[in-house]
Amino acid sequence: MSQRKSVSIKELENERFISMHRGYWSREMIEEYCRNEGFVPNFAIEVGEPDAMVPLVKQGLGVTLVPELGWLRWRDQLPHRIRISDPGCVSHWGLVWSSKHYMPPEVRLFRQFVIAYFNKLP
User: Fold this and answer.
1) What is the value of pTM for the model shown?
2) What percent of the chain has pLDDT over 90?
């Protein structure tokens, strides 16, 4: 599988998954994607910290799904990146604030930083 450019979620049905513990959004995302393809993922290893998944994947103990930002963070450490070909496997994030409330200068600066950071991403 490591030589492939993309796989479908269904092709991961017999894989061992490395994931966050139940209750984390990334775990729920994996469960939902697999459920939509008609199977329950085999969570072989559960961790409480995202960085703990990286060495486990590197050791070949299982696979995990990470969003694009996760890949950008760990791209030098993870052995392979294979895109998920299913069109429904996307997540959208947004930054919201109220224009009716006072925004301290530090918060405005952080908002500007976040907007600039995400505008630079591919």
Assistant:
1) 0.71
2) 50
